[in-house]
User: What shape does this take?
Amino acid sequence: MIKFNVPPYAEKAADYIKECVENQKICGDGAYTRKCNEWIEAKTGTAKCLLTTSCTHATEMAALLADIKEGDEVIMPAYTFVSTANAFVLRGAIPVFVDIRPDTMNMDETLIEAAITEKTKAIAPVHYAGVACEMDTIMAIAKKHNLVVIEDAAQGIMSTYKGKALGTIGDYGCFSFHETKNYSMGEGGALLIRDEKNVEAAEIIREKGTNRSKYYRGQIDKYTWVDYGSSYLPSDMNAAYLYAQLEIAEEINEWRLNCWKRYYENLLPLKEAGKIELPIVPQHCEHNAHMFYIKAKDIEERTALIEHLAYNEILSVFHYIPLHTSPAGQKFGRFHGEDRYTTRESERLARLPMYYGLTIEQVDYICDAVKSFYA
Assistant: This one.
């Protein structure tokens, strides 16, 4: 069976984790946490990166930093993971869902302004499959209406929009290092902070509401409780596992891109014959090959395709159930405007195996299986 995902692993990880144990420093903000933060800061150009226990927690931190309160509204796509909405629902806010674009599966930036009310506090664009939303338009709308922008870049590390790293364009950006992502620490994430003035507040929230970060830097002689917060620090052993991958980040990225390109080239004849649709990456976007998906004619054809691939020992999956159709989405949020594409496109999309270590021979085999289905 060709698995859908295999978590990335770099050989030095075991040595780094052993080092944490031998140094008796396995809690948060150890040496490898700092190394990961510094690597991401250098790679993306963000003012500050803070490794977190998950992308969910990074988004929750961003909601706290944006002072999201009960009754506030946050505009986002319904085609996303539940964490995008949950981070704001926990603050008592209302997710306002808008339709997606059928080309990139990202939030349709032309629909945002019509969804804004006097209660709107923030916009949460989601960069689906590591392909950027139209951030120039989104940032212009946010500036015009004085809104905070929190980028859900869970799938977006190593991707760019007009040369800018995803997660660094809005006020805050959130990465995921879950085992399904391009780089993993099992469970983990990172909060990217664009403006230096917001760093201290973020450190306090992340350190249980204390000013312990300043204490560790020698800026104060003792630390104390200064504001609300929680514990968003991952174990340094998790960070050590991640850092080994960051050291070979370009190799991992290139491997995935080569697989993505092979998929595209092999399946292009099916697209040209009108049998399937392939991913679209705008020219000004550089993606990270987080996933490769195809779109079937409808949900019935997709179901049959996934079953056909399973018969051929290939695990393929569909993706999100649109949030506005879920029980919690109907309870906590609302959809603004018409659902022209969100449900329709989500029901057509099938994700093919993609991971560091997937071979070109396996990609060819998968493509042959897709072709045999459409034959």
Q: What stands out?
A: The chain has a mean pLDDT of 97. The two ends are 22 Å apart (CA to CA).
